[in-house]
Structure prediction request, 606 residues.
Amino acid sequence: MTDTVATFDESEIIAIREKYRSERDKRLRDDGNDQYIEVTGEYSSYVEDPYIDQPIVREPRTDQVDVVVVGGGFGGLLTAGNLRESGIDDLMVIEKGGDFGGTWYWNRYPGAMCDIESYTYLPLLEELGSMPSEKYVKAKEILAHSAAIGRHYDLYERTLFQTEVTEVRWNEERQRWIVSTDRGDAVEARFVAMANGPLHRPKLPGIAGINDYRGHTFHTSRWDYEYTGGDPEGGLDRIADKRIAVIGTGATAIQCVPHLGAGAKELFVFQRTPSCVDERNNVPTDEEWAASLEPGWQMQRMENFNNLVSGIPEPVDLVNDGWTDIIGKTVRLVREGRDNPNLDVASLVERADLEKMNEIRSRVDTLVGDPAIAESLKPWYRQFCKRPCFHDEYLDTYNRPTVHLVDTDGRGVKRITETGIVIADPNGGPDDELEFEVDCIVFATGFEVGTDHSRRAGYEVFGRDGRSITEHWADGTRTLHGLMSHGFPNAFIISPSQGGFTANYPHMLLEVSAHIAHIAGHALNNDLATVEPTVEAEEAWIAKIIEKARQNMAFSESCTPGYYNNEGQPGKRSLQNSSYGSGSKSFFRILERWRDEGEFAGLDMR
Prediction:
């Protein structure tokens, strides 16, 4: 991390813009999100739970409760916890996994760890009297922290594990939600809070021949340690005679590729777009520092981080990592260039971004010995076109003679055969191909983000008059504050869409879970039967979301395709599905002021 800001002449800026544009254009596809397969039916094996030691056997439940919370990740845990803090004890959590954890229940691949520092990422550290062992803890510790939250709020006895919701339907006569599950449950609830999470449903690429392959396959969110050996710490000792392929080079691959590279006879990493990989610099927690902390330290640190990564200056950087360095460069350059009448803020931000990305690309040259491989690993796009990654072993892995980067020059895998993977030959003619025979394909392709809510959640929600949320959101998300929709009374859907987004997602979950508890608590304490947004309030919020999202449209269109810009198809629907465009801090203040005013503006409460 440097403290000075480089200068660039206009010709260099123009050349970089053209390079970014040409690299983006290679990757644009007409099918957008449709390039991914829905993981159901013949692909259901990719979502089976390999982590259950003892399946739960029970009779169907027909409980009547005040609130059902769907999901046992941080969103569900914090929502249920806030409800209990507000005095609502009659609640049930439904979780398809065998324990709490959500994304961190499923992501147990070798090397899995958080890329936001643990002291801000793990919620309720002070409340639980807990301190992470490292600045960036591993998945096992995050999973244990999730369980600790569940115990803290006595949620285990209130949770149906190994249970997947199949439908949520409003009963107008009873003015209750009927939550149906794959266990035959039909639970009645006055309120339902859906905390399925943005990283919930594994996605597979719709590659031709994906079903023809006769070797072994699995998705990283369902890691097969029976095949690889080892555990989340690494030590993959059963693949020493195997040729392994990894499809995908996002945040998951960044973490598991070093372990696969160390264990496999040969590893082939198939790359469509390289990730932006900065240094992580993980360190053990300083016990003396931890002992010096005063009450309220975690929220102060969370807000400090959130402000810095949102471009809001802070007198001191409490976190001091790759995330805050990104924004720090921008803030410094804007300050230094304020008196230059030839540069507007957008130009200053662009130059700060270029400086940071040049650092990232130079880091590749420093760590990767083969110049050709290094060139293929360099990201050519603006910093926040994709989620930044941080790792200290990923790039070095390509120095191993048994690890091969298969760069597809933006085109991706062409097809899968019975024995391997085929790509178009980057150095050949239009019909020339290269095939790589492998024993196992690991899909490091992440989770669905831009698809319809019902597809990601795995169930449909039916509101008044049997209208589904899919129908109501056919042209884009329709909510008030990203949480409630007209025609779906007493229902909360926790999502970044039309809500607040911050790199530290649990911070957002803390804020919205408090908001949910405030609304549900008021309704239950005052014996109100239904609560839902008015049509006018919903329309007004949608208009505000679209208006602010348009300000970012040019940037989104310039980016290489990814889930941040709806796989290269930012349009009206994408605009309407955006998070609140003035930043998470402004969004949190809107919710706080709304609660403080006490008028429940925009809600029809009866």
Summary: The CA atoms of residues 305 and 320 lie 9 Å apart. The mean pLDDT is 91. Residues 64-201+449-600 form a domain with the FAD/NAD(P)-binding domain fold (CATH 3.50.50.60).
